[in-house]
Amino acid sequence: MNPKPESEPDPVDGDRELLGQVQRRAERSQRWLREGEPTLMRQLAAVGVLGWIIVVPLLAGVALGRWLDRQLASGITFTAALMLAGLAIGCWSAWRWMHER
Length: 101
Hints:
Elements: H1 13-35, H2 40-72, H3 77-100
Helix pairs in contact: 2-3
């Protein structure tokens, strides 16, 4: 292994994050050059995946909230709260998925 020259400092966390972003962008660029523009079907599939990423946690929150509300006779308190939590988790997951692509 070649040791680093003494004049070159170790990158700090911000630099590592920037390097990671640059590498991901370069990988995307290389993939685009290899594969070209995505087809209409691939774009529709991506929209479908985004929909499921958002809807599944939302529906899970509603189902769990309805069950808790029935068990505790609390109206729609848990349903509303867990529906919003599921929506937030779904939107966060979709955002992460889009930024990893």
